[in-house]
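Narrative summary of target 7.
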Amino acid sequence: MPFIELFGHKMHYEEQGSGNAILLLHGNPSSGYSWRKVMPALAKYGRAIAIDHMGFGKSDKPHIEYSFFQHATFLEKFIEKMGLKNITLIIQDWGSALGFDYAARHEDNVRGIMFYEAIIKPFNTWAEFPKTDADDKSRDLFRAMRQGGKGGPGWKLNVEENVFITQLLPNLLAIPLPEAEMDEYRKPFKKPEWRIPIWRFVKEIPIAGDPADMTVTVGKYSAAMTRSNLPKLLIWSSSGATLGQEHVEWLRQNFRNLTIVRIGSGVHFFQDSNVNEFLQAFAEWFKKI
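Modeled conformation, tokenized:
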């Protein structure tokens, strides 16, 4: 089981294949395990590497804040210590924010970006924040999960009651998984203190200017992607939880050198629910870049 030490903490990763890096960055609440179905096929095209962000999966769970900026620092050091060059990024959810941020600051080390269910720009208002139901219950839940600091209402929902894992994750996966696979998704968050990274990521979604530092950071990388000629591939589903038709149209008009592929009835984890479409879209795009 491969680990690399970063700033005194061990980060877990898996890799298959050889050549230029294909770096897979997972979101919240997940781990590198979510890429297990696509890694073997991706390894035909390069050195496919899936990390567990610090505090997630099999990586260490140090007593840190788990801010976006700490995750970004760990990612940058991982790439540096592993000597990864000419990277193709495959990014989703918070992995997309980390990947876009890295690409905006290190464009010369990035070959292309495949993304989906991504954080593409700050949400100016709560009305822009996606909802997965007609009566705003999902949006209301996210509002509640962001309330207060440690020990507050959001902390209780995420850390003490484990709402993200027990209520949201099964719906986001879109397909029923064998119990052993579901347990792999749940295992890294079994103890309340292990759920702090989930809580922090929820708090850091830039909505209506809050938090201010993430609003600035996401705004910067979003603007950088509108100027960058890096090849980009968006895969999306009309039943997706994060990116709907309006977001796709915004991307079509604003992100340069963008290929858009619509897939079937995926919700959030296309690498688990839409494996064949995922791999076909990647293969056709990758051979052109």
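Residues 68 and 201 are 7 Å apart (CA to CA).
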